[in-house]
Amino acid sequence: MAEEIKGEVPTSGEGEIQPVAAITPPNPVSDWLLANGFEHEFLGLDHLNVPVLKVSREYLIPFSTALYAYGFNYMMCQCGYDAGAGEDLVSTYHLAKVAANGDYSNPQEVRIKVFVPRADPHCPSVFWIWKSADWQERETFDMYGIVYEGHPNLKRILMPEDWVGYPMRKDYVTPDFYELQDAY
């Protein structure tokens, strides 16, 4: 499954620009998922040529289970980011296939992005698929307020339990003062 991307390339020394069509190479992970009924949006390749897939939060668990069955047995990173004030919050998962023989030289990788609305920032937890999601989902919850449903211990990990708000959101208002704690 190739996707056509249109662009412009100069064709002469005089700066003439001619439109061309370039074909992106097929992505085996995305193709396999689509062939097996797992709908998603292919967002392209990142700067390291890792495919980036957008998944609806309703399908994250079956989608992640399929990727695990396909061999993506290692979650390298889970993080979140704010797409902008008033826009969606994003939960990102960077997965890799790690060979059983311990060959880490060139693992196949994929990134999943789940966009959640700011008004209802809920997303299922992938802790039960990849245990390394434990503290990473807690940190994303603590900084961005994305609630990972089904997480066994979802509580603040960096900020005090009584902290109000989520400091990494772009619409976060910094308090005028901070309560000083006793150092003794």
Describe how the helices and strands are arranged.
Layout: E1 4-10, E2 17-23, H1 28-35, E3 41-45, E4 51-54, H2 60-70, E5 74-82, E6 89-96, E7 109-116, E8 122-124, H3 133-144, E9 147-149
What structural category characterises the helix and strand content?
alpha/beta
CA radius of gyration is 20 Å
CATH superfamily of the domain at 28-149: NADH:ubiquinone oxidoreductase Nqo5 subunit
The gross shape turns out to be: globular
| Strand residues, percent | 25-35%
Averaged pLDDT? 85
Describe this protein's structure:
The protein has 184 residues and is an alpha/beta fold. It has a domain at 28-149: NADH:ubiquinone oxidoreductase Nqo5 subunit (Beta Polymerase, domain 2, 2-Layer Sandwich). The protein has 3 helices and 9 strands, in the order ββαββαββββαβ. The chain has helices spanning 28-35, 60-70, 133-144, and strands spanning 4-10, 17-23, 41-45, 51-54, 74-82, 89-96, 109-116, 122-124, 147-149. The strands form 3 sheets. It has a 5-stranded mixed sheet with strand order 3-4-7-6-5, covered by helices on one side. Helix 3 links the parallel strand 8 (122-124) and strand 9 (147-149). The protein is globular and about 50 Å long. The N and C termini lie far apart (64 Å). The model is unreliable at 1-12 and 17-23 (pLDDT under 50).
Describe what is shown at a glance:
With 184 residues, the chain is an alpha/beta fold. Helix content is 17%, strand content 29%. The chain is built from three helices and nine strands.
